[in-house]
Design brief:
Strand content: 5-15%
Number of strands: 4
Helix content: 40-55%
Radius of gyration: 16 Å
Largest sheet: 4 strands, antiparallel
Oligomer: single chain
Strand order of the largest sheet: 1-2-3-4
Shape: globular
Structural class: alpha+beta
Length: 154
């Protein structure tokens, strides 16, 4: 049996970051909340029963205009919740070790992120994809994504 992946390392704009898994209890709620928030985005994807993982999706099957429309419908409160949860599991790899990207009080824990929207958004997306997709792939729920996609087109 293969050990579960507990983190992934990414490089964004020349900086190295480590993204960890959500803690189990907080992650359970975060995944349920994020899935409910993001479910309408699945309607922007053409159904394909061969999709087993996010990597199996054909980018041409995504209706970009539909994705943008649904993203625009996410409330600021829900967006802030998702981004905060995502950034709490991100750490920058520095010479002295890993530094949390976001402190518990909501302030940035590393320099030069408070006005770097591109890096913050990239970290948010990496953390959400890493945590949400691995949840569905590593469980008996792996059929949920194709089912959600096809049910949005009925």
């Amino acid at each position: 049996m293969q050990a579960p992946v507990k983190h992934k390392d990414v490089e964004i704009n020349g900086r190295k970051f480590r993204i960890r898994k959500f803690p189990a209890r907080a992650g359970s709620f975060a995944i349920i909340k994020m899935t409910a928030i993001l479910a309408p985005l699945f309607s922007s994807i053409k159904p394909n029963r061969n999709i087993k993982t996010v990597e199996d999706m054909d980018l041409e099957s995504i209706n970009i205009a539909g994705v943008i429309e649904h993203l625009g419908n996410i409330s600021e409160e829900n967006f802030n919740y998702m981004q905060e949860q995502a950034l709490r599991v991100c750490y920058e790899s520095l010479p002295a070790g890993l530094a949390p990207v976001l402190h518990d009080n909501g302030t940035f824990g590393v320099q030069d992120l408070e006005d770097d929207t591109a890096t913050v958004m990239a970290l948010t997306v990496h953390a959400l994809v890493f945590n949400v997709t691995s949840f569905f792939q590593g469980s008996g729920l792996s059929g949920l994504i194709p089912g959600l996609i096809s049910s949005q087109h009925n």
